[in-house]
Design goal:
This protein has 11 helices and 7 strands. It is of the alpha/beta class. It has one domain: Rossmann fold. It has a 4-stranded mixed β-sheet with strand order 2-3-1-4. The mean pLDDT is about 85.
Length: about 270
């Protein structure tokens, strides 16, 4: 539709843009910055930003496994973007693809600093996925209480198997469903082969076209996050173990056969 779109991968796995570029991985901003700094050369846009079919894309990257904090890497990545003139770039839409672990302050950066206008949550009909979605909603609500402006525009249900837990979650939290991507073998296979799924010629074209419009037009709303018990309540009792009584453990349980009860050395003074 002629819109200028920038896609920024903000996940240490650096896999956001691989589908767009047919399985090729982009050199990340953090990796490129380190390499250029060692060589005494500046980073330029062409080192880290690439384009296909009108979409510009880049990856922030992150530290190597076991060698640093992924969230801190994201913060460092945005500092590098600022040096490249990020605030002056002219795009109609900037999409930031974050993993849902907003417990880490680095991954919650766009919400905390009002770097985005709205959040799109991607989740499926399983407990762990909705737990992460609820954490994102909690983060949005928390920063709204501190004067922030970011809201949740809605959820995209991924690998939808029709069981309805994600729909029930959205109904209670107060956010709309923007699209439901079915758990279909054709989608799975094309994704695994790095094929763009929602082309105009494919059977999924209209689904993804409607999703694109919904992402652009859906207004941000303030969600009402659930407590842990409320979240578990969306699932059947036999699936989550409701009704189990918590049985407190004792020191004897923890020590096993080696447990020996020892007299207390505490001195108690009787009141006069």
């Amino acid at each position: 539709q002629g819109k200028r779109v920038l896609l920024i991968g903000c996940d240490p796995k650096s896999d956001t843009t691989s589908l767009l570029f047919g399985g090729k991985s982009c050199p990340t901003i953090i990796e490129t910055s380190s390499r250029k700094k060692a060589a005494g050369d500046p980073v330029v846009i062409g080192d880290v930003c690439f384009k296909r079919d009108g979409v510009f894309a880049m990856e922030l990257g992150g530290p190597e496994v076991g060698r640093g904090c992924g969230g801190r890497g994201i913060i460092h990545g945005f500092e590098l973007l600022d040096k490249l003139g990020f605030q002056e770039w002219d795009f109609d839409y900037v999409l930031l693809d974050f993993l849902g672990d907003v417990v880490c302050g680095g991954f919650g950066l766009p919400i905390a600093r009002d770097l985005c206008q709205k959040v799109i949550v991607v989740a499926s009909n399983d407990l762990q996925s909705l737990y992460v979605a609820n954490n994102v909603c909690s983060a949005v609500d928390y920063f709204r209480n501190l004067g922030g402006n970011v809201g949740v525009a809605g959820m995209v249900i991924n690998k939808d198997d029709g069981t309805g837990e994600a729909q029930a979650f959205c109904d209670v939290v107060g956010i709309p469903i923007l699209a439901a991507i079915p758990a279909d073998e054709d989608i799975r296979r094309k994704s695994a082969n790095y094929e763009i799924i929602g082309t105009a010629e494919s059977q999924w074209g209209s689904l993804f076209q409607e999703l694109g419009l919904a992402v652009a037009e859906a207004p941000p709303v303030r969600p009402k996050p659930l407590t842990q018990d409320q979240l578990l309540g969306l699932f059947k009792g036999d699936a989550v173990g409701r009704g189990v009584t918590l049985d407190p453990a004792s020191l004897a349980d923890m020590c096993g056969e080696s447990y020996v009860e020892k007299p207390s050395l505490e001195i108690i003074y009787e009141g006069a």
